[in-house]
Design brief:
230 residues, mainly alpha, two-stranded antiparallel ribbon, 8 helices, 2 strands
């Protein structure tokens, strides 16, 4: 393994691909425990970086935080917007105009999700960001590596949002949003399945546990409040 660091900096700033097994096989795949990179080690993080399409090792976190913050704003707005579309709490519709049913609103929601996904994908294929490799629509169609997982994710997401919106009509949208428990579920997957946060500091574990406890309390309080509606 070859790792280059700059003196005076705490962390890896550049890297070269690692080679754990000089015999020609990948130490992460050949089943030899002595050749595998342990979770949480520098070697493991570099091997994980090598599998990503967008390389972030040695780059600042500012752009990633900005993208994540913008995504959070979008996710926080779509459910209230769906609520307004079906219930019209702001009374924007004229008298006598019926509200959209949850199924009609879900159709428009899904249609524009498809449009936005196509626009963003085609744009980033030809004009990639963060130094990602440039591609083309033809290459996109010919490459089916990993597409099964992506299709499964879209299928599950579609069912999940459809059921969430129907549950929102029955129990209230705040309660329907709360039961998603995204931080709880995503943290469970990250820790148990993907081995993230292993070998982290005590402060990291303390913050993680505090986040999970506070979110659990918030979900419980929000769900309890939905039972007192008149």
């Amino acid at each position: 393994m070859i790792v280059e660091t700059e003196s005076g900096l705490n962390g890896v700033t550049s890297f070269k691909p690692t080679n754990f097994n000089q015999g020609g096989t990948n130490g992460l795949e050949d089943g030899d425990a002595s050749e595998k990179a342990k979770f949480g080690t520098v070697a493991f993080l570099i091997e994980l970086e090598n599998t990503r399409s967008i390389k972030v090792l040695g780059k600042g976190t500012g752009i990633g935080l900005k993208i994540t913050f913008f995504a959070g704003i979008c996710f926080s707005m779509f459910s209230p917007a769906f609520n307004l579309a079906t219930n019209d709490q702001w009374h924007t519709l004229k008298d006598g105009v019926p509200h959209l049913t949850v199924y009609t609103a879900f159709f428009y929601f899904s249609s524009f999700c498809f449009v936005i996904a196509m626009v963003l994908n085609l744009t980033f294929l030809y004009y990639p960001i963060l130094n990602a490799p440039k591609s083309s629509f033809k290459a996109y169609l010919n490459d089916w590596n990993g597409r099964g997982w992506a299709l499964l994710a879209g299928l599950v997401c579609g069912f999940g949002y459809g059921l969430q919106f129907m549950g929102g009509q029955a129990a209230g949208y705040p309660a329907a949003d709360a039961v998603q428990a995204l931080p709880l579920v995503s943290t469970f997957w990250a820790v148990i399945l993907f081995g993230e946060y292993r070998r982290s500091s005590g402060i990291t574990y303390t913050l993680l546990a505090g986040m999970l406890l506070m979110f659990t309390a918030a979900v419980a309080i929000l769900m309890a409040s939905s039972g007192h509606r008149k």
